[in-house]
Amino acid sequence: MRDWPPRFFEWATLEAYRAALWPAAPLAAAWLAASARRRPQLARFRPSMPPTNHRPFWVHACSVGEVTTAIPLLRAMLDRWSGVPLVLTVSTPAGLALARREAPVPVTWFPLDHPLTVHGFFTRLRPRALLLVETELWPGVLAAAHARRVPVALVSGRLSDGRAKSYRRMAALWRPVVRPMAAAAMQSAVFAERLAALGLDRARIAVTGNIKYDAAPAACTLEERAALRRSLGITDAAPVLVFGSTRPGDEVLAARCWTALSPRFPGLRMIVAPRHLDRLGEAEAAFSAVPHVRRSALRESAAQSGAPVLLLDTHGELRRVYSLATVAVIGGSFYPGVNGHNPIEPAAQGVATVFGPHMGNFEDIAAPLLEHGAAVQTRSPEDLPAALAALLEDEPRRAHIGAAALEVVRLNQGAIARTLDFIAPAIEKALAPAQGGS
Q1: E strand map for 331-403
Q2: Which of 71, 194, 220, 284 is the 20 to 30 Å CA partner of 13?
Q3: What's the CA gap between 154 and 386, in Å, rounded?
């Protein structure tokens, strides 16, 4: 009886959250409808239902990074549970586009966390289990799953320090939906402890590693790199800087680096890949004084034009383009707010990689890279030109960093198998009714 008051308070907090969503829904719909970029997400009020013959496993991955993680996981699940359909949901237009291109299973929108939407989605999909990739915790969805006895598992789970603090501040909302989760396969011991602090029994938590290592593309062959260089009009001898997943401020920083480095390194080429293509005009403006070309406009004549800066405005190419980098730079890591992007992709190509001081969302990846001398971290944006110059001048150091990066990736692979082994008991309990057919 002593836990009755806090449990009642938790119930009341969750009900207050649900109640607040009723007046918020029309406002959210108006906000989405007001923007052509956001308007497709109106479909999240009633997501389309992919055809399935039986009740599926539901896997949710928020956006591009999580979808990239989910794709090899989905393939492994199809191999392991071949008779059970899978459905993937996503939350962003970019994630949806990538998933529809590359996912081996049907794809639809993730429902907005509104009582009517969530109820309708569960009623129509009738999932056997719900797997959430990384940190996609929504109180309404989790509460609905628990009420329907749908087991929930977190895979490749992570809780950044900032997110964990915000969850702790609203512990009365999060504890009742985290506590009943069936399993949590976490990326690191730090993330596991943060989840346990929210109330999940430690017996249902395991550290299985980061699936992003398993999702890393194989290193491109020399022939593949040569063909890609030719298609981009880059000679074999030209040093290449790749600024990947750039965010506001990063392109201006890249342009400053170009101004500082291009006189010292004849033939230098730079490839800039904005994280969100709707920012392409802003990114291009940073290079208004530098000859540049968009990848989508690149034809044989343009490739021979000698434009030293290439703006990557196509989907799905950055992972291959990293293989051309003499040095790769991780966007979103030099200024507060974004907390970095995934450095595994250039590391898996054996490329010397540089990132800034703000890598909070990828601390568990940045730390082993730095510990093994497999990456370089600058203390500020102002330090970046000098750091790049030092690497461009020192081929043996670049080779050492690249080899160490490949080794870090190799040592950390295998998370998918460990994850599926850990969550299998919960998943296979959900399969028991399937033996009858539906």
Answers
A1: 352-355, 376-377
A2: 194
A3: 41
Answer yes or no: are the C-beta atoms of 301 and 323 closer than 8 Å.
no
User: Residue written as tokens 């013959």?
Assistant: 53
Domains parsed from the chain with CATH numbers: 7-23+35-215+414-436 (3.40.50.11720), 222-411 (3.40.50.2000)
Question: What is the 8-class DSSP label of residue 292?
Answer: E
Three-state DSSP at 337 gives: coil
The vertex-405 CA angle with 262 and 328, nearest 5°, equals: 20
pTM of structure: 0.83
Q: Which helix (H) or strand (E) holds 79?
A: helix 64-80
- Written as six digits, the tokens of 229 are 């260089």
pLDDT tens per residue across span 264-316: 999 999 999 999 888 999 999 999 999 999 998 876 444 555 689 999 998 87
**Which residue do the tokens 């789970």 mark?**
157
Q: Which of 430, 415, 22 is nearest to 187 (CA)?
A: 415
Cβ atoms within 10 Å of 417's Cβ, excluding its own: 14
- Residues 408, 368: contact at Cβ < 8 Å? yes
